[in-house]
Amino acid sequence: MFKSVAPVCLLAFMILILLTEGSYAIEEVEDPLNSSDVLAASVMVSSFMEKNKKLPENVSVGNRTLDTPSYAYALSKVLTGSKVVENQTINGPQLDIRRISVKLTKNQYLEIASKFRNFTSRTQCCPATISFSGGKIDFYNAVYLLSKIGRYRQLHGKLPVAMQISTPLPLNAYHINSKAIDTRIKNLKSQIRKTINLMNIINKRIRYSGNKKTIMRLQGKLRSLEKKYSYLNGQLRYYDGLRSSPWYVPASLRRYIRSTAHCNINDPNIVYLARELSGNTTHSTALNLFSWVRDNIDYSFYYRTRYGASGTLRYRTANCVDQAHLMVALARTSGIPARYVRGYCRFISGNWYSHVWAQVWIRGRGWVTADTTHTMNNLGHVYNWNTSVSEVREVLLEYDLH
């Protein structure tokens, strides 16, 4: 009996080996990245960052799609001498953007590329910042720097002698500059008045002139002024239209879109996040900002201010005051008026506490409550304390208690 079973077992074992070998045979080994494809991608990335003022979500390298950290690591290897680069999935750091404007020597930027490559190779994560002989550079600027160097190499066939870099990020996330619109409208109206006056003078001179040559010359001037008048009126209609935009902030509210203590609207990390969360309208943008702070900043109990808006974004934990700082800063840098409210509130626990929250101003809605301290709360609605019995003590442009 056992003798008859043995050949069957042997046959089954041999079939299993063949199947296993087959599975290994058909498993594809991904080809490495070609250095020329990586350099070609750097042209697109540097141009994208200059135009859009942000990192791309994905980068096309040859026929592959890489995330930005994986692309940056591959580029650092190419710039430091690798001809062929393995396609590795690399993690990215939390952004800690710094505004820089500096000219780097070849030795300095190659030092940055080498340190970027070595750190990433060791940790499988790109560095948040790199210290080099000329100072420090963060991940955002490092990606831009490496991409600019790669673009030069791709276009000129060699590395540059030096490389100038300025952080590709605006000072704020405003959609429109309301003050500049008012100034432009004022200037246009002044130019239109002057143009009308000149047209009237010329028309009068044409009526009383008996010289045909003079009349023809004046008519030529009049036609030029009429074209100018038409252009200025078109410009005035355009800028008057911007005044009707939900992004336009009336002069009486513009103090609520400026930096104040603990609320730096020009912090590059706050500007970057605000641009990433921007919607098509002020309401959708405010909702995105509110939801991000509520869902990404943990509540921690302490008194007064500890981190401010910038520190709260960095550490991702804060009390009510610092959460309000971050909410206010994100709104203001987006061009949405925001302010602080301090009150004495009865919470759902039954306890009474001093409390601080933000309000944002939305055209057509007025001041809208934005209390991010509890996941139950929504923009415009508070559920973790009783609004009917709680008391508002102050409405503030800035909150500066240490």
TrEMBL record:
Domain Transglutaminase-like: 312-374
Matching InterPro entries: Papain-like_cys_pep_sf, Transglutaminase-like
Pfam families to which the protein is assigned, alphabetical: Transglut_core
Domain of life: Archaea
Protein name (database record): Predicted pseudomurein-binding protein
Gene3D superfamilies named among the record's database cross-references: 3.10.620.30
